[in-house]
Structures
1.
Amino acid sequence: MNYQLRNLLFLDIETVAHTSEYQNLHADLQKHWERKAGFFRNDEGATPEELYGQKAGIYAEFGKVITVAFGILHEDSDRQLALRIKSFSNHDEFHLLSEVKDFLETKFDPENLRMCAHNGKEFDFPYLSRRMLINGIKLPYVLDNSGKKPWEVNFLDTLEMWKFGDRKNYTSLDLLTTIFEIPSSKSDLDGSMVNEVYYHEKDGLERITAYCQRDVIATVQLFLKMKTLPIVPDDKITIVT
C-alpha cells in the first residue's frame, strides 16, 4: 500500500442540539445560549429559541454527538485498494463516545495512528474531544494534544490541504466532490437537516448514520484525488457492523 495511506483513519461526526427543544435546556445554559445567540448575524429576527434548533448542534457546549463513522483503507485479497467503513451511533452519548474511545485504543497503534476529516481541525477533532471530556471520558492518545509538539499532532484535514495556506475561505466537501467528479454524500440529506431529522423522524438516527458513512467515503475519495491516486471503486467499499 502507498505509504501515504498507512495508519490513516478517516472520520466524520454528526451532531445535534443537546435537547429536542430549547425549553428543555437547563436554565443556566439557556442564559448562556441567549448570550451566544446575540452574536449571530440575524437579519430575519430569529429568536434564541429558533436559533437553538438551527445552530446549537455545531457547538460542543450546547450539542452532542450522535454518530461517528470511520473509514480505513486496506488491500483486499487481490492486492487492490479497498475501503472499510465502520460507524457508531447511539442516543446515549456517553455510551457512543466510550465505544469510539475503545475502538481507537484497541484497533490501532495509538502512537502511529493519523486521522483525517474535512474541516476536522476546526470541527470534528475538537468537538469529539470536548464532548468526551464533558462526559468524563479520558481522551485517547490520538485526540489528546496536551503537551504535544505541532509535528506530533497526527491530524490531517482535506479542507486545509485544499487551502494551500490560504486562510480566507471555507470550501465545502460537497463543492469539492463536485469539481473532482466524486459522487456526493448529499443525496437526501445535508448538514442543515440533521437536527430536524434526528428529533422529528422515527428512523432519523439510521438515516443520519447512512449520511455520515457517505461523508466518510466522499472524504476518502477526495483525499485520494488530491494525492493524484486512483479512487476506490464502489465494489471495493464495504460497510461493516
2.
Amino acid sequence: MAERKIFAGPKVRRVRQALQLTQTAMAEGLGISPSYLNLIERNQRPLTVQLLLRLSSVYKVDLDQLQAESGGAAVQLREVFADPLLAGEIPGDQEVLELAESAPNAAGGIIKLYRAYREQAARLTDLSELLAREGHETSLAGARLPVDLVRDRLEQRSCFHPQIEAAAESFIEALPSGEDIAARLKAWLRERHGISVRLLPVHAMPNFSRRYDRHSMRLFLSERLSSADRRREIAQEVALLALRQEIDAELEALSLDSAEAMRIARFELARLASLALLMPYGSVLTAASRARFDVDVVAARFDVSFEQAAYRLPMLARPGASAPAFFIMEMDHAGHVLRRAGAQGFPKARFGGKCPRLGVHLALMQPGQTVVDAVEMPDETRFLTISRSIEGAHATFGERVRRRALLLGCDLEAAGELVYRAAADLPAAKVLAGTACRLCERQGCLSRAEPPVTRPVGLDEMVTGLSAFDFQ
C-alpha cells in the first residue's frame, strides 16, 4: 500500500513547544536526527505514517488534529483580506493558508479584530442615522479609506499653506527672467536636474497623463493633456523637487497615520504647489484684485485654465490679504464630489454643497457657460456662487469620459467688489437651497431628491404634492 505523506510542520512545532521540548529532545524520542525534524517543521519534509504513529505513541498526539486542515480559519481570513481596506495586500491564497497553518493564534486574533471592526462600523452607521434623524449632518461611514481621511483633513484646513507659498515665490524670483513661467520651469528641470520633457502619443502611454522615468531622466506627458494641464504637470514635477521640504512640513501637520494616506496627501499638496509656481502669490493677488476676481481674466493673464485659476483663488487667504474667503467644490455629472477646499476650510455646516438646486448641476448641462447664483440657505445665510463646467483630458473616439464642473463661492456680503456681484442681484439668480435634502424642510421643492428625516413623508389622500417626497 502506498505510504501517505502529510506536511504539517507548524503543527508539529506547536506540539513540541507545548511540551517544552527542544528539537534535539523530540528528535531523539522519534528516532530521527534534529536536522530532519527541523526540515519537517519547515514543511520541507513530510510526516510519514511511521512518524505519525511515533508521535501518537511517544507524545500522545491526536492524529486527527494533526491531519486536520485549517480550512475554517483560511476561509475567514480570505473574507478579512477581501475587505476594501485590505484588498490587494495579499495577492493570492497561499499566504492566507500559510498564516492559518503556521500562526493559528495570530490568525484567530486577526479574525476577532476584523469582526470587532465590522461591529463598530455598523454601530457608527446606526449613530449616523440617529444624528441625521435629529437634524445633525454627519459624514460617518462604515468604511474609511485613506483617501477619505485625506479629503476630510484638507477640507477642514485653510487652503493657504504659508510655507509652500513663501518658498514658491522665492523660487520663481530666483529663476532667470522671462515672460513664460512654464518655460522657465522647464529650463530649470533640464539645467539643474538633467530632466527633459517629452510628449507621448496616446498609444505609447494609454493609462497615464504623466510619468517620470528616473533611469532616462525624462518626464513623459500624454498628448491627451491640454496645454495648460501640461504646464501644470511640469510645475508639479518642479514642486516635488524644489519645494520638497516645505511640502513635507505641511504633510506632517496633517498628522496622517498610513503610508497610503501620506502618498495621497503629498500628491494633493504638490498639485497646490504647482499652482503657486504658475501663479506666484503677489502677482496673482494683484492681478485678481484689479480684475475684480474675474476668473477668466486671471486665467488669461497667467496662461492657465479656468479650473487652475479658480482653484488658486481660495489659496489667497493670507491673514490680512484683501481677497474674499473663497471656497470651491468640484463635482462630476454623476453627483460625486471630487474635491472641496476653502480659504477657512470648506463651509460644510453652513453651505453643505449637496443641494440639487446649486448652479454646479446646471453648469454641467450648459458646458462653457458661467452660472452665477445668490444662494440663500434656510437660516437666511447667503452665498455668491460661480459655477462652470471644466474640461479634462482629451478622449479618444468611443471613450466615455466623466464630465466635471466647479462651484466657486464666498459669503454674499464679502462679494461687493466681485465682477459677478451685479449678476447675483438679478431675480433669476436667487436660489433657495439647503445643505442637503435629508436635512432641508423647504416645501414644494421641485428638485428634492430625498425626503427629510425630520418630517413624516406623505400628504393625505386628498392632496398631491409637487415632489415624490412631499411631507407633512
3.
Amino acid sequence: MAVTLPLGAVEATLLAGVRFAAFLVIAPPFAQRGIPSMVKLTLAFGLALAVAPRLDQEPASSTGAFVAALVLQAVAGAGLGFLVALVFSAVQAAGGLIDLFGGFQLATAFDPMSMTSGAPFARLYQFAALVLLFASDGYQVVLAGLARSFDAIPLGTSPVTGALAESVATGLSQMFLSAVQIAGPLLVVLFLTDVGLGLLTRVAPALNAFALGFPLKIMVTLTLGAFAFLALGGVVRALTGDAVDTMLGVSP
C-alpha cells in the first residue's frame, strides 16, 4: 500500500514545527531545562500538525528556497520566544529589586534549571510564576497566541522588521515598569524603613540604629513579602495577556 502526501502540506508542517520548536526553546515556561528536549520536539510537531491545515501549503520552488524558509521560521520563533521571555522576566526582576532593597542580595545562588544566578526572592518569584503558568493553564494561552502568530507573520514572511525591533524596545521598557509596579509597595516600605533608621541615628547616635537595621529590614521584607506574594497570581494572568498581545503585535 502506497501513501502519497502532498508536498505543500509536508513543507508547511515542517516550517510550522521549526517555528514552534524555536519558540519552546526560549519562551517560558517551556525553556526550563527540567523539560526534556524530546518533549519539546514532540509538542512542537503536534502543534504544527494542528495548525498546518490553515497555513499556506504552496510548495517551495527549490531546495534552497525551502532551507531559507526554515531559517526564517527559526528566527521568527526565536524572536517571538524572546518577546515572551522578556514579558515574564518582569517577575524575576521584581524579586531582584526586593532582594536588593531588603538585603538578600548577598545570598545569590546559581540556578541550574534556568542557568542564571539569583537571590532568594528572585528565584522564588521566578519559580512561582512558572508554577502558576502551568497551574492556571496560562501556557495554553501562550501557545494559542503563538498559533495565531501565523496570521501576523505568515509562512515565507521575514520577521526582521521595524515592528519586531519596536516590540523589543517596548518590551524592555514595559519589563522595568512592570517590575517596579510589582515590587513598588514593598520597596516604598523598605525605603521608609531606611529613612526612619537614619532619623533615629541622628536623634540618638548611641543606639547604633544601623546595627539593628539589617535584621529589621529582613523581618519587614519577609512579613510584607508574603502579602505581595499573594498577588502574584493576578500578575501572572496579566502578563500572560501582555505576552499574547506582544506576539500578535509583530507584523511585517
